[in-house]
Amino acid sequence: MRRSFALAGAAVTVFGLLAGCSSGGGSGSDSGTTLKVAALEGGYGRDMYAQVIKAYEASHPGVDVQLQISKSIEDEITPNMKAGRYPDVVVLGQGRKAALTETLVKDKALEDLTPVLKEKVPGETKTVGDKLTKGIVGNLNTNPYGNGKTYLMPMYYAPTGLFYNKGLFEAKGWKVPATWDEMFALGDKAKKQGIPLFTYPTAGYLDSYFFALLADIGGEQFYTDVMTYKKDVWKTANARKALDLTTRLLSYAAPTTVGYANEQDFTKNQQLILDDKALFMPNGTWIVGEMADAPRAKGFQWALTPLPTVTAGSKRYITTSVESVWVPSAAQHKDAAKEFIAYLYSDEAAKIFAKSNAIQPVEGIASSLTGENAAFYKVYEDPSVAALVGGFASTAPVEGVDIKATLFDTANSIISGDTTEDKWQSALNDASEKLREAGD
User: Fold this and answer.
1) pLDDT computed for residue 31 by the predictor
2) Would you state the pLDDT for residue 381?
């Protein structure tokens, strides 16, 4: 089924996959080209990259693709980039603490990839643009400067939302909440049985939560106003309502949440869902692969639900996580890089990625899924659910301002009692105003 995304006009936030390193000589895809690609080892694993590269080299004998992969790839490649040794191809989602992608966007240090959309996929008759899901290109994620040019190509997409154990709900006879009133009622009921209502891996995972919440409370226009820093948007009644609901939800958080909400221990918070020690957590479909070998409660079944709504029967929103592939403007092998990116959308590559549950925004791929992934992606077929591709718009850098950290990471301080909702709201409005002024 062809599904258009409800584009609310902002850049996507996601939870990281690839990054790049170093450089090479020459600029074309001619014989003898060494193309350097580095990958962040994320929830989809590492094997799929090696397989795709092997397949690409088989059809491009003049190209040697060198892969670097680790769980802390930004730390490894940033020194090289500062020394002028840039990667050729980078696939790296926004939203990671290092903010490498965001930094290069703000510095306007990315190559224009608009021509890639018109290129034929190597070995196929269709162009890259023809194969992409309608609506996945043309928003501030792919076109961050709003000038009609694409600088970040969408690589993988996944529905995000609240993940839970379907088996537990069936065993308890509990209904998945459709409204916030139902959610908090369930929280009170579960609390009496010693089960916290909520947790999160790290506070950064609240991006998918907040984006959907803002759209539910004020509609897509309000969501866009927040993402594009409309004047005093965080002083509005809708903004306060979002913080009120969130502060109340955080009061139901598992007691270990803040202590484990870091890059070393986040899987311990995820394990709470598997152990029936928390009911819901915000996450994406990669969670299945990431926790594939973890122990779990008897009868455990992964399930995904959109956020509850404020008003019963209203549209529910689900944030779509999109991870991007891009080329630094300082890359030495730009032509070869663009051809490699075009190949990433081939049927051959898409099948390899899909085996690791890395689903690309290519028409027809989702319909071929089975098992849990098939159930997850069916959310896009629900007429009562709208998909958001979104995140904060890019502006010139403002020293000391990180609105994502202010919005998401403050949750830790709300839970611990180190700050208040009033201070949270004030800090958000201050950050938003500074970014608005930087964007003028």
Assistant:
1) 55
2) 81
Tens digit of each residue's pLDDT (9 = 90 or more) over 92-138: 877 677 888 888 888 899 999 999 999 999 999 999 999 998 878 88
Task: List the one residue out of 429, 404, 411 whose CA is nearest residue 247.
Answer: 411
Whether the CB-CB separation of 91 and 18 falls below 8 Å is answered with yes
Ranges 28-32, 288-292, 435-439: which has the least confidence: 28-32
Does residue 256 surpass a pLDDT of 60? Answer: yes
Give the H/E segment covering residue 106.
helix 100-106
CB atoms within 10 A of CB 194: 8
Which residue, among 317, 10, 279, 50, has the nearest Cα to 167 in the 3D structure? Answer: 279
List CB contacts of 158: < 8 A, sequence separation 6 or more: 284, 285, 286, 320, 321, 359, 376
Helix axis angle for 421-439 and 237-250, nearest 10°, is 130
Tokens standing for 28?
A: 């074309």
pLDDT in the model for residue 20 = 33
- Read off the tokens for 349: 């590559």
Q: From CA 57, how far away is CA 243, in angstroms rounded?
A: 51
The residue length of the chain stands at 440
Distance CA 200, CA 206 (A): 8
Instruction: Write the pLDDT tens digit of every residue in 209-234.
Output: 999 999 999 999 999 999 999 999 99
Reduced to 3 states, what is the DSSP secondary structure of residue 274? helix
* DSSP character string of 175-231: PPPSBHHHHHHHHHHHHHTT--SB--SSGGGHHHHHHHHHHHHHHHHHHHHHHTT-T
**Average pLDDT, integer, range 336-359:** 94
CA-CA distance, 2 to 360, in Å (whole number)?
Answer: 14
Q: Strand 316-326 to strand 153-165: parallel, antiparallel, or no bridges (unpaired)?
A: antiparallel
Judging by DSSP bridges, how do beta strands 385-389 and 316-326 pair with one another? parallel
The answer to whether 272 touches 278, Cβ cutoff 8 Å, is: yes
Enter the tokens of residue 369.
């899924």
pLDDT tens per residue, range 47-85 = 999 999 999 999 999 999 999 887 777 888 889 999 999
The rounded distance, in Å, linking the Cα atoms of 281 and 200 is 5
pTM for the predicted model, two decimal places: 0.79
Q: How far apart are CA 6 and CA 384, in angstroms?
A: 12
